């Protein structure tokens, strides 16, 4: 159910996943990952209504708790290829890209 940040970086580079950021807009303004999309209600409606159920999705948040909940929600809606980024943007900043601010 979880994927390591280093693997997410590889998948983003290959453009084989959709990275959904489930943090608040304030958190997103402080720090975000290039290629990630901040989730709002309009995007949720789009995902649930139009995305193929096998879309490769990774959810992310600050520490990996909210994103795990979001991944479980999407799985409950029938999405089969959903994972949460372990440790969230905090681990991303420490392991993948130290230019992304810690907060």
3D structure, described in words:
With 103 residues, the chain is an alpha/beta fold. It has a single domain (2-96), classed as 3-Layer(aba) Sandwich (Oxidized Rhodanese, domain 1). Helices cover 46% and strands 17% of the residues. The protein is built from 5 helices and 5 strands; from the N terminus they run βαβαβαβαβα. The protein has a 5-stranded parallel sheet. Strand 2 (18-21), helix 2 and strand 3 form a beta-alpha-beta unit. It is globular, with a radius of gyration of 13 Å. The N and C termini lie far apart (25 Å). The model has no long low-confidence stretch (mean pLDDT 98).
Task: Using brief descriptors, characterize the structure shown.
about 100 residues, alpha/beta, Oxidized Rhodanese, domain 1, five-stranded parallel sheet, 5 helices, 5 strands, about 45% helix, about 15% strand
**Order of helical and strand elements:** EHEHEHEHEH
Shape descriptor: globular
- CATH class, named Alpha Beta
Q: Helix fraction?
A: 40-55%
Amino-to-carboxy terminus distance: 25 Å
Structural class: alpha/beta
Strand content: 15-25%
Tell me what the CATH architecture is. Answer: 3-Layer(aba) Sandwich
The spatial strand order of the largest sheet comes to 1-5-4-2-3
Major β-sheet annotation = 5 strands, parallel
Oligomer: single chain
CATH superfamily, by name, is: Rhodanese-like domain
Mean pLDDT: 98
How many DSSP H or I helices? 5
């Amino acid at each position: 159910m979880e994927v390591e940040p280093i693997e997410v970086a590889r998948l983003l580079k290959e453009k084989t996943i959709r990275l959904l950021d489930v943090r608040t807009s304030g958190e997103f303004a402080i720090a975000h990952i290039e290629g990630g999309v901040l989730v709002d209600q309009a995007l949720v409606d789009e995902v649930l209504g139009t995305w193929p159920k096998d879309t490769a999705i990774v959810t992310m948040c600050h520490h990996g708790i909210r994103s795990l909940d979001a991944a479980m929600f999407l799985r409950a809606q029938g999405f089969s290829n959903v994972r949460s980024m372990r440790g969230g943007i905090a681990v991303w900043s420490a392991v993948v890209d130290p230019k992304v601010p810690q907060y």
